[in-house]
Write a structure and sequence with these properties.
single chain; alpha/beta; 9-stranded mixed β-sheet; two-stranded antiparallel sheet; Nucleotide-diphossugar_trans; GalU_uridylyltTrfase_bac/arc; UTP--glucose-1-phosphate uridylyltransferase
């Protein structure tokens, strides 16, 4: 069985929910305390064994390759000032043996189209897809958990979690039957159903392992509203050819595509931050007392 060594990051979206902050800077580069969302996603992929990071980019996304590129001037300045700790941190953003590939998505034609853009690089190998604005705090990381499941079953896998019935209209919702602890086999998938029409409350989040057959399926999907190709439709077609699994990952997901989810992530990660965690907790206690 082939190992998962390629991870695709669709990052061409406009990030309209965070305007004006995302007018000139990608939403994927919004920081959680002192590290951008994109770096958390890359670290998760690398921890799962990925050695090729494939970014599907668009306009105003230059800061993403800049972040993973070497900064000679900055590193020289830090070295001259003796700031070795932060210098080591910068040099470790992209570990040795890991490479970045950037593919331009000329039009924002849906998540399925973004994944399809990766076909020339992925080829006939299984691959991971990670959406950076879904920040998952797991131990081991969520994608590593999914890679371990793939090693056992060899099937495409969707990361899922339970959501409130009132929230089903915001997600792809799966109809699935349990085959093992936290592992289910898909019988169907519905994009953003109303609560009354939802087959379950198991929502697909931004973590996927897909076999290369998904490319054939996406190439034959009928575009929907605005000419967009939905990954959900491609997965529904994939089920006609091979088994597709859903995995209920262990960990906490923060929807950093929403302002509330983003702020929750910042607060909770700041509370655990080795440099400011203690002082930040003291501040929160004082703040709580002043409010009550």
């Amino acid at each position: 069985m082939q190992k998962i060594t390629k991870a695709v990051f669709p990052v061409a979206g406009l990030g309209t929910r965070f305007l004006p902050a995302t007018k000139a800077s990608p939403k994927e580069m919004l920081p959680i305390v002192d590290k951008p969302l994109m770096q958390y996603a890359a670290e998760e992929a690398i921890a799962a064994g990925a050695t090729e990071l494939i970014f599907i980019t668009g306009r105003n996304k230059r800061s993403i390759p800049d972040h993973f590129d070497k900064s000679y001037e900055l590193e020289a300045e830090l070295e001259a000032r003796g700031k070795t700790e932060i210098l080591d941190t910068l040099r470790g953003i992209l570990p040795k043996g890991v490479s970045c590939i950037y593919i331009r998505q000329s039009e924002a034609l849906g998540l399925g189209h973004a994944v399809l853009c990766a076909k020339p690089v992925v080829g006939d190998q299984p691959f991971a897809v990670i959406l950076a604005d879904d920040l998952v705090d797991g131990n081991p990381p969520a994608m590593k958990q999914m890679v371990d499941v793939y090693a056992e079953y060899g099937s495409s896998i969707l990361g899922v979690e339970d959501v409130l019935p009132s929230e089903t209209a915001s997600y792809g919702i799966v109809d699935a039957s349990k085959i093992a602890t936290d592992i289910l086999q898909l019988k169907g998938i519905v994009e953003k159903p109303k609560p009354a029409d939802a087959p379950s409350t198991l929502a697909v989040i931004g973590r996927y392992i897909l076999t290369p057959k998904i490319f054939d399926c996406l190439e034959n999907v009928q575009p929907g509203k605005g000419g967009e190709i939905q990954l959900t439709d491609g997965i529904a077609a994939l089920m006609q050819y091979e088994k597709v699994l859903a995995y209920r990952f262990k960990g906490t997901r923060y929807d950093c595509g929403s302002k509330l989810g983003y702020m929750k992530a910042n607060v909770e990660f700041a509370m655990r931050h080795p440099e400011i965690g203690g002082e930040f907790l003291d501040y929160l206690r004082i703040l709580k007392q002043s409010i009550t």
